[in-house]
Design goal:
Length: about 170
């Protein structure tokens, strides 16, 4: 019940401490709630529903390319051994449990994690994926459908959870 007694600056310090512990992944909602006093219980459920909806956001390929290719043009991937990585286009896979983006380029093995984090930050800047992880893959060939098999069965499971939570919220 320490969370119910937190006020103002103490809450900010706790929030910062939580985000510091989970450092690479900092884009998630934090809701202080109390099971004993039932304080902010509905806020927790609303936040869970919002994260679920964020996870199932679908972005058209044309919109992705419009935004991300201009960001890539402004800050291209670093050259490796005198060769430049050219990202041709990006697409979002539809049949995955976690939002998954595939970038098609000429030298995918030379795109390192810092640049992938840059791309993830650009995606999060332009679309609301708060509370959900993002997968980024670099591919040379155009086999998008091989990635589509990831976690198909989990999509139906997530839909059942969302329906149950919405029923609880709107009784």
């Amino acid at each position: 019940e320490m969370t119910s007694s937190l006020v103002g600056s103490e809450m900010c310090k706790e929030t910062d401490a939580i985000r510091a512990r989970l450092a690479p992944f900092v884009d998630f909602p934090i809701v202080y709630a109390s099971a004993l006093t039932k304080q902010r219980i509905y806020k927790v459920l609303e936040s869970a529903v919002q994260v679920y909806k964020n996870r199932h956001t679908k972005i058209p390929t044309s919109k992705l390319n419009e935004v991300l290719l201009s960001a890539i043009e402004n800050y291209p991937p670093p050259a490796h051994k005198g060769k430049y990585v050219k990202i041709k286009y990006v697409t979002m896979l539809r049949e995955t449990y976690v939002p998954t983006f595939v970038f098609f380029c000429n030298l995918p093995q030379w795109v390192k994690d810092p640049y992938k984090r840059y791309l993830e930050n650009k995606i999060r800047e332009n679309w609301n994926f708060s509370g959900t992880p993002i997968n980024i893959f670099m591919e040379k060939n155009k086999t998008v459908y091989s990635f589509c098999r990831l976690s198909r069965s989990l999509t139906d499971f997530g839909t059942d959870i969302l329906n149950t939570i919405e029923r609880l919220l709107f009784l």
